Amino acid sequence: MAYCPYCNRWFKNKQAVRAHLKHCPLKPNKNKIDFEKLFLQFLKVLPKMEVRENGIPKKEIVKWLKIPEETVEELRQWITKNEYSPVLKLMIAGLRQRA
Ligand SMILES: [Zn+2]
Questions:
Q1: Residues with C-beta atoms within 5 A of ion ligand 1
Q2: Which residues of the chain register pLDDT less than 70?
Q3: Which of 40, 98, 89 is nearest to 65 (CA)?
Q4: Ligand 1 centre and the CA of 84: distance in Å?
Q5: Full-prediction pTM beyond 0.90?
Q6: Cβ count near 16 (within 10 Å)
Q7: Do 13 and 51 have their domain in common?
Q8: Cα–Cα distance for residue pair 76/73, rounded to 1 Å
Q9: pLDDT computed for residue 30 by the predictor
């Protein structure tokens, strides 16, 4: 018997584990963007960004986070999906008041 170190499922042998690892849902994917990390980076540079009436221009985020526009869009979706939008709106409102 051998088990998968990510999801802890048991398999009959090491070969079966190797086959499973190609599809294991809990195995970290190196090509996948870590949006949690990216979001934290975004928060760190947020006070330095230019804030407009309708929010932060995409170009500002591209410039500060050094990510392509598609990734900015994906980050935006991630923020919405994880319900961080209300807190972000508060922060942006605060920044606009300061300006
Ligand atoms: Zn697994």
A1: 4, 6-7, 24
A2: 30-31, 99
A3: 40
A4: 30
A5: no
A6: 15
A7: no
A8: 5
A9: 67
One domain, residues 42 and 88: yes
Q: Are residues 39 and 26 in the same domain?
A: no
**Is the domain of 78 the same as that of 90?**
yes
Cα(27) to centroid of ligand 1, in Å? 6
Q: Is 48 helix (H, G, I), strand (E, B) or coil?
A: helix
If asked whether residues 3 and 51 sit together in one domain, one would say no
Distance 11 CA to ligand 1 centre (A): 10
For residue 64, the model assigns a pLDDT of 96
Distance from residue 23's CA to the centre of ligand 1 (Å): 8
Q: Are 55 and 91 within one domain?
A: yes
One domain for residues 7 and 50: no
Helix or strand (DSSP H, E) at 58: helix 58-65
Distance in Å, CA 5 to ligand 1 centroid:
7
